[in-house]
Specification:
Elements: E1 28-31, E2 34-37, H1 40-49, E3 53-58, H2 65-78, E4 82-86, H3 92-107, E5 125-133, E6 141-147, H4 150-154, H5 170-177, E7 182-190, H6 194-211, E8 219-225, H7 238-245, H8 247-254, E9 261-264, E10 268-275, E11 278-286, H9 289-303, H10 313-320
Parallel strand pairs: 3-6, 3-7, 7-8, 8-9
Antiparallel strand pairs: 1-2, 4-5, 5-6, 10-11
Helix pairs in contact: 2-3, 2-9, 7-8
Length: 323
């Protein structure tokens, strides 16, 4: 892949005046007491005027998208590197989802995965956030998580059945078609279904590049989820795991010289407990290690800076003498 990034900070349309609130790209526009759907041009303008960095989570159903998103929100809200600011522009459903995500990590309970309506017409939920580093020398990171169902995303893969269309719903297409929109992609696959997940991810990457060659230069992070349950030969080498079990993805994204990133991912340690006659898994110990890795990747990708910087000569001097 080439190193130029068409989604790098500073590109795209800048806001004209106050930012629109809510899920602007899909708002209805009042017209003589009635409502009409925005035109494509109006949708694109609403998205571009947000002047944010959209984070597109891709993975088939139950891949762990919602849990990854929850762990990132929890980490940024509790880490000592900065403060997570919840934008006032979020709609009520986004605010409730943020609260549920944070509480799910605090209480160790699993969130219900994102459901899909028949036909896949519901838009992604936009979660508008700002991470403000405590180090005053570092710029804030303004970003928007796109939360959507795996059933809708899986439609990108063509099958010999009537269930898959080979095309994403229009409500998702809007983000991919919007000129100048800043996009980063988190691709999720579990070690349990690595080969199947690789096929779906490969179809998605084909879909993007066929849509526009600029997506060949986008930034991708591949996360292999549920790593705490993996006990195979590659436990200590996720890159080799991907090379063996997801070779087409390795060649496209992870091979030497790539601008993309790879990590294994786990929320932490789980314990099975009896609950109402059924057995449930409860998160008993949160592992923030990988959330920190993904947060650093996002911050560097969006701002071009690193949250964890090497101490300067003056700082080392002060640390040495205990000043």
């Amino acid at each position: 892949m080439q190193t130029e990034n068409p989604f790098s900070p500073g590109q795209g349309t800048k806001p004209q005046g106050q930012e629109p609130s809510g899920i602007g790209a899909f708002e209805a526009v009042p017209l003589n007491g009635q409502e009409r759907v925005k035109t494509a041009k109006e949708q694109y303008e609403s998205l571009a005027n947000k002047n944010t960095n959209f984070i597109f989570f891709f993975g088939k159903p139950a891949a762990g998208k919602t849990h990854l998103m929850a762990s990132l929100i929890h980490y940024m809200k509790t880490c000592d590197l900065g403060d997570l600011i919840i934008s006032k522009n979020n709609q009520r459903d986004a605010h409730l989802l943020i609260q549920d995500m944070y509480e799910s990590i605090q209480t160790g309970t699993f969130l219900n995965r994102t459901a899909s309506q028949i036909g896949g017409t519901e838009p992604p939920t936009e979660i508008d956030l700002i991470f403000k580093p405590k180090d005053g020398r570092l710029p804030p990171m303004k970003f928007t998580f796109l939360e959507m169902s795996g059933e809708n995303l899986e439609m990108v893969q063509v099958r010999n059945t009537n269930q898959q269309s080979g095309k994403l719903p229009d409500t998702i297409e809007t983000y991919l078609n919007c000129p100048g929109l800043r996009l980063s992609f988190l691709l999720l696959g579990s070690h349990e279904e690595a080969k199947r997940d690789a096929q779906v991810i490969d179809s998605f990457l084909d879909y993007l590049v066929e849509k526009d060659a600029k997506f060949d230069r986008a930034r991708y992070l591949l996360a292999i989820t549920k790593w705490d349950t993996y006990t195979g030969a590659y436990k200590k080498d996720v890159e080799e795991f991907v090379d063996v079990f997801m070779p087409q993805i390795y060649q496209r994204l992870i091979k030497e010289g790539s601008i993309n990133a790879l990590t294994n991912y786990s929320l932490g340690s789980f314990q099975k407990v009896q609950s109402g006659g059924a057995v449930a898994e409860v998160l008993v110990k949160v592992d923030t290690t990988k959330a920190a890795v993904v947060t650093e990747w996002l911050y560097h990708n969006i701002t071009g800076k690193s949250l964890i910087h090497a101490p300067s000569l003056v700082e080392r001097f002060k640390m040495f003498f205990g000043i």
